[in-house]
Amino acid sequence: MIEAVREIAHARGIAKDHVHFELFEAHEAEAGDKPFEVEISSTGQVFTIPPGKSIIEVLEEEGVDLIYDCQRGDCGICQTTVLSGIPDHRDVILTDDERAANDVMQICVSRAKSDRLVLDL
Known about the structure:
By secondary structure, this protein is α+β, with helices and mostly antiparallel strands. Helices cover 19% and strands 21% of the residues.
């Protein structure tokens, strides 16, 4: 229903990112998810993100200090610059243009379409 309201508002000239909404459940893993690598640009460290775990979960387990909040892809606090690779955007806050640019992602729910992402962390 949320997406229907956003689509109707967009059809009437209101940008999707100008319609406020909140979600109350975490994003679930999708069939076909595969492992991918995340490289931290500041340190060169490389981590493997398995299916069923988020980038945040893996990095936190390995001692990387991150800023995040909702872990549902709807607050934008964990938004991170993508220096290389193609994100699989699973958030609900980026606009279509932002998704197409592939230069930022929400590391709490999004994954990778490429084998490796290099993140500005």
